[in-house]
Amino acid sequence: MKIFPAIDIKDKKCVRLIKGDFNNKTEYEISPVDQAGKYKDHGFKNLHIVDLDGALTGETVNLDIIKEIVHKFDLKIEVGGGVRSIDSIEKYINAGVEKVILGSAAIKNKNFLKEACQKFPNKIALGLDAKDGYLSVSGWKENSNQLTLDFLKEVNDYGASRLIYTDINRDGTKESPNFEETTNVANVSNCPVIISGGVSSIDDIKKAKGLKNIEGIIVGKAIYDGDIKLEELVKELDA
């Protein structure tokens, strides 16, 4: 199973939000580039980056930082946060990003998702962020009134190569992921699923390994707060 240490960027800093609330954030001293280097030095191969400025503006605000990370470290990087145009996808792919995550824009406009998947085969990940079974959009500030599983069934054949499922009620809480709902999503999804939101311990990683159609798991706040040591986490990587 793949493990994706997370870097969320806001105002050029590493931050973590609680339940997606921009008013409830923790800033960390280490820079995004140095944090990526730390992950690389510990032996991680994958990295999950969210441009929180981009999530608010719809622009590739932190593209230069992401480019620097790509060029300095040999990591497979997935990037999300406010990607709302083919132009933005191209910028990230040209920068060397492995997969671009489409969230709100895909939920609001299914044709955009379909076009992106056709234009960039194997490069598009679908990011579904849900609260109480319903998808949220626009930096988690709006409820889309769309049931997660209903939406997934509609777009399942569009060609996304990865699905990142986040339970907003768990994100940043370290209360463990919503394994039950993630399992429901994985059972419906045509593509492999990444678990996100609430990882608190190595036990969560071990539990995720036993689930069907789960490709990997994203770990964020538990690393920054020292609840999970990178030395322990890297042992859970597939050989």
Structure description:
By secondary structure, the chain is of the alpha/beta class. The protein has one domain (2-236): TIM Barrel. The chain has eleven helices and twelve strands. Strand 5, helix 4 and strand 6 form a beta-alpha-beta unit. Helix 1 (32-41) packs parallel to helix 3. The chain is globular, with a radius of gyration of 16 Å.
Short description:
This protein has 239 residues and is an alpha/beta fold. It contains 11 helices and 12 strands. It has one domain (2-236): TIM Barrel (Alpha-Beta Barrel).
Number-wise, the strands total 12
Percentage of residues in strands: 25-35%
CATH architecture: Alpha-Beta Barrel
Largest sheet: 8 strands, parallel, barrel
What's the CATH superfamily, by name?
A: Aldolase class I
By helix and strand content, what is the structural category?
alpha/beta
* Helix fraction bin: 25-40%
CATH class: Alpha Beta
Strand order of the largest sheet: 1-4-5-6-7-10-11-12
- Rg over C-alpha atoms, rounded to the nearest angstrom: 16 Å
Q: What are the segments in which pLDDT stays under 50 over at least 5 consecutive residues?
A: none
CATH topology: TIM Barrel
Number of helices: 11
Amino- and carboxy-terminal Cα gap: 9 Å
Q: What do the pLDDT scores average to?
A: 94
EC number: 5.3.1.16
Protein name: 1-(5-phosphoribosyl)-5-[(5-phosphoribosylamino)methylideneamino] imidazole-4-carboxamide isomerase
Pfam families: His_biosynth
Pathway: Amino-acid biosynthesis; L-histidine biosynthesis; L-histidine from 5-phospho-alpha-D-ribose 1-diphosphate: step 4/9
